[in-house]
Write a structure and sequence with these properties.
Elements: H1 2-41, H2 53-83, H3 94-106, H4 114-119, H5 125-162, H6 164-182, H7 187-198, H8 208-215, H9 223-248, H10 259-288, H11 298-308, H12 318-324, H13 326-346
């Protein structure tokens, strides 16, 4: 009799345990999903995290427009210094050094008035407008989308392997590097801008459509060197900024960053990007500023550069570039992060 009574009790207890397990299973799944969501959120590293696509596009577009109007002259100066193959500095003779620099920077306007010199800093402004606005919109607006993809699909594994902070830096840097390589799609506009700044005779008397039809693939000359420069440079830009946001400021979400924090993060990212990319940037610029009918391969340029100017020439113009191009990149990146968050709050 006791065995008959205990059997139903045991069965009832078993059914009760199974029912409790079934009820607990959805709760455990929800907890795991929440932990995964929190892991992804912990990887926030660049301004615009969690922002809408519209806010990202508008914010980065504003950065491109303001950078174009404020910094095109400094970009012209940097490109002309990198393209120069002669010695500018004359030891012990500051007057001669300044005269050489004046000739390299202002060229035909070197002996003109201040206004003439100022006007000479805006060659290729039309090409620069198309290139710069598209570039900043693509790069600053598109990088968060790629970062979101990396966080969603690889975030937890990066966090487990490297920890939340280093993992977030790697996610942001990798997304930036991927966007940097894809940037070569805009290369024709960059090539024409650089030629207008450093070798205007190559464009003289030729319309835009004529150039595109006649040169074709020649406008993508230096694409390999550009991709090789952009990948580490963009990794350093976005990764360095992420390191500041997470490693130094301890932010979980950069929407919480102040303007000063975004500005500091931009400084670190910009200086790291310019320095890392400097050698390949010199090669890229020299490949692109050659006349259309007299191209020179990057390998040949490297050989000539080492033979005639020495290895230090790979960093030619680095200090002026950090001084004049650095503020441009710092400015545009800070504006992009700030405006993305601003638009996201209002749209």
């Amino acid at each position: 009799e006791k065995d008959r009574q205990s059997a139903p009790d045991t069965a009832a207890q078993s059914r009760s345990s199974l029912g409790q397990a079934d009820r607990e299973q959805p709760g455990k799944m929800q907890q795991q999903q929440q932990r995964n969501y929190d892991s992804v959120r912990a990887f926030a590293a660049i301004g615009g995290d969690g922002a809408s696509g519209t806010a990202r596009i508008l914010g980065s577009g504003c950065a491109g427009v303001t950078e174009l109007f404020l910094f095109h002259p400094t970009d012209t100066i940097a490109k002309r210094l990198m393209s120069n193959t002669k010695t500018v500095y004359v030891g012990g003779d500051m007057k001669a050094t300044m005269a050489n620099a004046n000739q390299v920077i202002f060229r035909d306007a070197a002996n003109g008035s201040a206004f003439t010199k100022f006007k000479s800093m805006f060659p290729g402004f039309g090409f620069a407008a198309g290139y710069k606005i598209l570039q900043r919109t693509y790069k600053f607006g598109g990088q968060p989308f790629v970062k979101d993809y990396i966080n969603k699909n690889h975030g937890p594994s990066l966090k487990e392997s490297f920890g939340p902070k280093i993992g977030s830096v790697l996610a942001s840097g990798t997304a930036g590097a991927m966007m940097g390589v894809g940037e070569i799609a805009l290369l024709p506009l960059d090539v024409l801008k650089i030629k207008a700044q450093t070798n205007p005779d190559a464009l003289k008397g030729r319309g835009v459509m004529e150039i595109f039809m006649n040169e074709g693939r020649g406008l993508y000359r230096g694409a390999g060197w550009t991709a090789a420069r952009n990948a580490p440079g963009s990794f350093a830009l976005f990764g360095g900024s992420a390191l500041m946001h997470h490693g130094v400021f301890g932010l979980e979400n950069t929407k919480e960053a102040t303007f000063a924090q975004n500005f500091a993060a931009s400084i670190v990212g910009a200086v790291a990007s310019i320095t890392v990319a400097a050698p390949l940037d010199v090669i890229k610029t020299r490949v692109q500023n050659r006349p259309f009918d007299a191209p020179e391969s990057g390998v040949q340029i490297v050989r000539n550069l080492i033979r005639d100017e020495g290895p230090t020439a790979f960093f030619k113009g680095l200090t002026p570039k950090i001084m004049v191009v650095g503020p441009k990149l710092i400015f545009s990146y800070t504006v992009a992060m700030t405006m993305i968050n601003w638009f996201n709050e209002r749209l």
